[in-house]
Design brief:
It is built from 15 helices and four strands. The chain is mostly helical. It has one domain: Rossmann fold. It has a four-stranded parallel β-sheet with strand order 2-1-3-4. The radius of gyration is 26 Å and the shape is globular. Pfam families: Gal-3-0_sulfotr. Its main location: Golgi. Keywords: Glycoprotein, Golgi apparatus, Membrane, Signal-anchor, Transferase, Transmembrane, Transmembrane helix. It is found in: Golgi apparatus membrane.
């Protein structure tokens, strides 16, 4: 009897020990898997599956969209992808008119339609026309910014272009009595003065913000754009974009392009900010809606711990490339930029910043660094020359010469 009891106890002991070891091993495997997933972006790896190469980016205005465009241009050039570029001497795809295929270089109106891999230049969204030049499996995405700050940036940048802004002595004065300056009949020229992002989506910027109308348009936008990024959370946006596109880390690392000097940024009073939200009520609803979907996607796809790790991996790589590429880590104003080919276009009262590259870079590093800091107009002209060598090159007026790559 005693021997039987001892034998049973030994069997129980070994069974418990085996279960404990098995459970410990499973926990270690799970932890290793989680750590490897978090380490993946630091190693420059990409998510499973082939990279997405058919992309339509709705480039909204004053939303960090020029930096996103630089990322897409670099990827297109590196992988020999076709880009839907503005036809002839144009620098946009028909904006502010609704997009038509005739605004794209290389599209024939009297024959079979040509498809492109990437579309990312400024246009006013018009889905039926966009679908004529983009493949059926195209991924559509865009980016939004808090309309208070988007409007402030637009006021500075388009001060000498929009009639509503030209007449106003200041943004605060404009917001205190916007109808004294804003004329709905000039909606195309005043597109930047009210609900600019709503306008870019192809919607009516002067429509009443009635609940039924707003909900219908938001649902329409969400159906067409399964991914909408948020400018205030740019690094988190790049993490999410990299996952959806299945790209490598270096594909989405960037330096700020087309940013303003701090001295040209106006700080609205709290009252002014509330007035901006009321004046741009459609943009405010748009932003709030997609800010919620953006964070819901991040929570569902990554979770807080992994998101922090991937964001830090992105920032660390940016710091590394800045040290390799840039003469100074901070952007420079136009008078400090030594290479005229890297000088950005200036508009309104904005002081648009650029970069100086470190001297002595070898050819391969110089080429990579130049692409990362190349201003939007110069890069578009460079891609145009590559895609359409038989066409006259685009001439950038403020440079007084056609750019070379």
């Amino acid at each position: 009897m005693l021997l039987t009891l001892q034998g049973s106890m030994q069997r129980c002991f070994w069974t418990l020990l085996l279960l404990t070891l098995t459970l410990t091993l499973l926990l270690l495997v799970c932890r290793l898997h989680a750590d490897m997933e978090m380490l993946t972006p630091l190693l420059g790896g990409q998510t499973e599956g082939p990279p997405v190469t058919n992309i339509m980016f709705l480039k909204t205005h004053k939303t960090a969209s020029s930096t996103v465009l630089n990322i897409l241009y670099r990827f297109a050039e590196a992988h020999n992808l076709s880009v839907a570029l503005p036809a002839g001497a144009r620098f946009h795809l028909g904006y502010p008119w609704l997009f038509l295929t005739r605004y794209v270089e290389g599209v024939r109106q009297d024959g079979p339609q040509r498809h492109f891999n990437i579309m990312c230049n400024h246009l006013r969204f018009n889905l039926p026309e966009v679908q004529k030049v983009m493949p059926n499996d195209t991924l559509y995405f865009s980016i939004l910014r808090n309309p208070v700050f988007q409007l402030e940036s637009s006021f500075t940048y388009y001060r000498h272009y929009a009639p509503a802004f030209r007449a106003a002595p200041s943004l605060d004065a404009f917001l205190a009595a916007p109808h004294a300056y804003y004329n709905e009949t000039l909606d195309l020229r005043n597109a930047c003065a009210r609900n600019h992002m709503w306008f870019d989506l192809g919607f009516d910027p002067n429509a009443p913000a009635e609940e039924g109308y707003v909900r219908a348009r938001l649902a329409e936008a969400e159906r067409r754009f399964p991914l909408v990024l948020i400018a205030e959370h740019f690094d988190e946006s790049m993490v999410l974009l990299r996952r959806r596109l299945r790209w490598r880390l270096d594909d989405v690392v960037s330096f700020k392009v087309n940013s303003r000097s701090p001295g040209t940024v106006t700080r609205l009073t709290p009252e002014g900010q509330e007035r901006a939200k009321r004046w741009c009520a459609l943009d405010w609803r748009l932003y709030r809606h997609f800010n919620r979907t953006f964070w819901a996607a991040l929570r569902a796809e990554l979770g807080p711990r992994r998101l922090r790790a991937e964001v830090e991996g992105l920032r660390a790589r940016r710091r590394e490339l800045a040290a390799l590429c840039l003469q100074d880590s901070a952007p420079k104003n136009r008078t400090e930029i030594t290479d005229l080919r890297l000088q950005p276009f200036q508009s309104g009262q904005a002081d648009i910043m650029g970069y100086n590259l470190r001297p002595g870079l070898d050819n391969e590093m110089l080429r990579m660094c130049q692409r990362m800091v190349m201003p939007e107009l110069q890069y578009m002209a460079h891609l145009y020359a590559l895609q359409f060598p038989e066409k006259p090159p685009k001439v950038i007026p403020f440079l007084k010469q056609s750019p070379s790559g």
